[in-house]
Amino acid sequence: MYCHYDGYPDHQLPFLLGAARYRFGRDLDALRRHLIDGSHDWKQLGTDLLDGAPDNVRERLDPHGDHGPSAPFDNVFNVDGTPAKPIPVTDANADAMGLEWGYVLHDHGIEVIALTWYDAGPIVPWDTDPLSRISGTPSLWDSNRPAPIQAPAAPLKVTKPAAPAPAPARPRITR
After folding, report:
1. Maximal C-alpha separation, the chain
2. Phi, psi torsion values for 20, nearest 5 degrees
3. Cα–chain-centroid distance for residue 175?
4. For residue 14, which of 73, 86, 63 has the smallest C-alpha distance?
5. SS3 string of 38-106?
6. How many CB atoms are closer than 10 A to CB 126?
7. How many angstroms separate the CA atoms of 80 and 87, rounded?
8. Which residues are bridge partners to 113 per DSSP?
9. Is 6 helix (H, G, I), strand (E, B) or coil?
10. Could you tell me which of 151, 124, 154, 146 has the C-alpha nearest to residue 12?
11. Contact of 47 with 11, CB cutoff 8 Å
12. Cα distance between residue 75 and residue 50, in whole Å
C-alpha cells in the first residue's frame, strides 16, 4: 500500500493505532483488508480511521478539524487507458519510488522503517496509545533501539477550586 501525503510516523501511527483500536476493534485482518485490498493506493489517511474513538481522542489527533477522511487514489489509468493495478511496495522498489517511510502491519505491532536510513525498524505494539508523543526524526527509528515514542501524560484531574478566602476586614475610617 502506498500513501502519498504525510507519511511521517507522527502523523500515520496515531491514525493506524486508532484505527486498529477503535474502528476495527483490534481485528487486524479487517484493518489490513481495508488499507491494502480496498483501494488502489492512498492520497492520505484520515479521520475516518478514528470512527468509534472517544471525542477527546479525535480532538487531540485532529485539533483543527483539517485532516478530513482518508482519500484513495481513484481514476488511475495506464497510458493505454486500462485501469492501473496497484504497485506493491517491496524492498526492491522502495528506493526507486523515493519512499521515506515504510509500515509493516505485523500481528504483534507496526514495524516502522525509516527507509532512507535503515532496512528494518522497531516494532510499535498495537496497544500503544494513539495519543502518545511520536518522533518523526528518521535517525531515531533504528531497529536496535526502542521506538521513539513517549506515552501521554496521565490525564489531569478536574477538581473544584477551593472557595476563595474572605477578604480581611478593613477598619472603617469615620470623620
Report:
1. 102
2. -60, -40
3. 72
4. 63
5. CCCCEEECCHHHHCCCCHHHHHHHCCCCCCCCCEECCCCECCCCCECCCCCCCCCCCCCCCCCEEEEEC
6. 18
7. 17
8. 102
9. coil
10. 124
11. no
12. 26
150, containing H or E segment: strand 149-150
Residue with the three cell numbers 481514476: 75
Residue 107 CA, distance from chain mean position: 17
Radius of gyration of the chain (CA): 23
pTM of the entire predicted model:
0.78
Q: Distance between CA atoms of 17 and 92, rounded to whole angstroms? A: 27
Chain center to CA of 14: 2
- What pLDDT tens digit does each residue of the chain (175 aa) get? 566 556 889 989 999 999 999 999 999 999 999 888 766 677 788 889 999 999 999 999 988 887 788 877 777 778 898 887 777 777 777 777 778 888 899 999 999 999 889 999 999 999 999 999 999 999 999 999 999 999 998 654 545 555 565 666 666 666 6
